[in-house]
Structure formats: structure tokens, C-alpha cells
Amino acid sequence: MSDESPYILVLYYSRGGHTADMAMQIARGVARVTGITARVRTVPPVSPDTDASVPAVPEEGAVYATVDDLRHCAGLALGSATRFGNMAAPLKHFLDQTGDLWLNGALVDKPAGVFTSTGSLHGGQEATLLTMAVPLMHHGMLLTGIPYTEPALGRTQAGGTPYGPSHWAGTDQPHPVTDDEKAICQRLGERLASLATRLSTTD
């Protein structure tokens, strides 16, 4: 940990804006816990064109994450739209650059959770969440999902899983994040912040 105030890194990749909306709801959940903040970051797109240039700062939305944002976080919420039951390539590309954090054990015993959005209701949400969790386990992070004590998890008619928040975005007419999906996102943020705070007191 650095000397700065502790924060939960909410790191995501979003094309249509739905995953970004979920990230902001998770940040709201983090804000419920005193003494810790949310740091919302995204990652740049990637392209098979080696000449593709990426601006240093996005035109809108969250700024791009650095490896140090991840290195110094007290906990992590990792989110991506689903691509064939897996995270999107830009987020995977970012994680592939974190080998030095793995070698140094920088993320060991920090809480982490995952979240996703799909166009179709059965578009691989749970598969995406589980595959996103795999590199976090390699880093030694402590995975947390959503317990069924969260009422919205048993009530939702759209997204939401015990593995982490999810959103059914729709295709022809995109659906906004529902109230239940928001509640599940906020619960993850609150859990991560609470766990990070408790773990810091036991060091």
C-alpha cells in the first residue's frame, strides 16, 4: 500500500456505456463505507492495426488506468462487457501487463469482485464473470461475490448473479440498468470497501 488514502479500484472496459454505468453504481456502494474511496478507471481500446494510436486521455468518461492504480489499490472491482463468454480484449491486454505485480505479490490478500454486461439475457454472463476471476486468483486476491442476503439478487428479472453483478443490456432497444441491478452493483462496492477496511486493520 502507498501512503495515499485507501481506495477501491473500479476498473472496466465499456463500449456501449452499460458497463460504465455499472462501474458508477459500484463506486456509489464504496462511498457508503467511511475511510475509503472509489477510483474509477477504464482501459484504452486495442486494435489489430499496429499503427492505431490511442489518445493519452479519453475524450469522455473515466481516465485510463495505470499499473500503479492497480498496484496501490486496497481492493478491486473488475468489469467488462461480454465477448463470447469472456472479458473484452482491451481489459485482458491490460491484465497481461501486470506480471511484475504477480512476481512481487502486490495484490495478494486484497479483496476483488467482477461485473459484466451482455446484450442477450443468456449471453455468457456467468462464464465471463468466472473467467475474469481467474487472473485475479493468480494474483492471490480474495474473491467476493454477492450473497443471497441481498434481496435484489432473488428479485431481479434482468441481470444479477452470486458470482458478481451483471446487466442485461438488450440489443435492438438497449435497456438501462434496472433498480435491482443497481442495488446488486452497490452491494458489491460496499462489500469490497468493508472487506478492505477490515483487512487493513488486521495487518
TrEMBL record:
One of its GO terms (cellular component) is membrane. Pfam families: FMN_red. InterPro entries: Flavodoxin/NO_synth, Flavodoxin_CS, Flavoprotein-like_sf, Flavoprotein_WrbA-like, FMN_Rdtase-like_dom. The keyword Magnesium does not apply. Gene3D superfamilies: 3.40.50.360. Its cofactor is FMN. GO terms for molecular function: electron transfer activity; FMN binding; NAD(P)H dehydrogenase (quinone) activity. It comes from the Bacteria. Keywords: Flavoprotein, FMN. Residues 8-193 form the Flavodoxin-like domain. The keyword Mitochondrion does not apply. NCBIfam families: flav_wrbA, PRK03767.1. Belongs to the WrbA family. This is NAD(P)H dehydrogenase (Quinone). It comes from Tamilnaduibacter salinus.
